[in-house]
Amino acid sequence: MNAPQFRAGAARVDITPPLGTLINGDLISHYARSIHDPLYAKALVMTAGDATVAIVVVDICAMSKAFLDDVKQTIYRQTDIPAANILISSTHTHAAGSVESLLMGAADMPYRQQLPGLIVEAVQRAQQKLRPAKAGFGRVDAPEHVVCRRFFMKDGYEARNPVTGGLDEVKTNPFGAEPSIDRRVSAVDPEVGFLAIRGLDDQWISLIANYSLHYVGDWENGTISADYFGVFSEQIQKKLGAGDDFVGMMSNGTSGEINIWDFLDPHRYPSGFFAKSQLIGTDLAEKVLAALPEINWQTNPGLNVQTAEVAVGVRKPTAPELEAAKAVVAQTNFEQLTGRAEDWYPVYAREQVLLNTYPDSILFPVQALRIGSGLIGALGGEFFAETGLKLKKAFPDRSYFTMTMANGYVGYVPPAHELKRGGYETWRCRTSFLDESAEETIRLRLLDLLQAEQDAGFEFVGRA
What we know:
This protein is α+β, with helices and mostly antiparallel strands. 26% of the residues lie in helices and 28% in strands. The strands form eight sheets. The chain has an eight-stranded mixed β-sheet. The chain has a four-stranded mixed β-sheet with strand order 20-21-22-24, covered by helices on one side.
């Protein structure tokens, strides 16, 4: 086996929006009034033989498939990296500039027009830094920072669904209803998976970690912050003693129903602004640092990428539901909504009207990357921990993790049985609209791509 030499390069570009930029990720829009820490587009480019792969992690809440398809085409024109070989994911920080319209959070069009060029620049810079390198995968458990945010509630509690007007079986984030909690609904994925890249001179190039924690959110509305994703990235560089060319990244795993707002033990973290994200990001960096001696470094890993687009159905309102929603919209002064609990009903009525214009099915992108003996899956939505755990179970002898909010964004993609239970993540809207079979269809298609790669997963020439 005489595979050509593996090379890698990494770079980051500042994408911090100016004050006044719209921020989404909430029921309504917020405006940037302060910048706590900078945001980045971070790129890792790898090449081996005829294959070149780019992985980009962006400090942003969400980016649609149409938006990213255009970015990938520009990257291809500027770098010759095939669009199919590019993975671009959002961290899903809820304190970043808005490039997509989510619920009543509007897109900031000047920032949306600016961001693509910055992402392209990050990939170009990373490609310019290509040098002989080695790669290794690792993993470590961090169960203390992930909890299921969906709860079965005690008898007598009414979990209202603003779309149907009926009752759900579960309640997401039961603020103020803690005494009515019965138990959590589902298990978490406690693992931090990571891909580490060093030069053959042992100088650090990059480290991409992956953790299924939604975000922390311990900041005041109107703040720009990379959340714990940014803290991890800075802390891992510091703890490695890496140089300025090193690029640390934290990507979002299957965290659709997972956060660290622990309603059963609400006082176990410090409560000040940024205190919790600083603690969690730093602790995860320390855990990854401790796991690095276990890495089996591969000095000449093979590279390959497989992509597919899966046709999945769209949930839309029935004719009577649409007419009822239109009546609510016609009577609502949306400019005066402030995000109160009662505002959910007109907001979701508007969502039904807008969702009705969607096609009956969409093409959903799935992507599988092989880097030496390790595998990475990419999914363009907010998937539950159950999805990630099933995929990991299929590869017990491989290093594997799933990057979500990757190559597109369709909102939540719950398993069919969770859709039936209801809860915030299932409420039909433009951020949760795929049909009941979508999660299984998408997961199985990604599994097909990953299984096609696994037998080739140990193709490399040497070990460090």
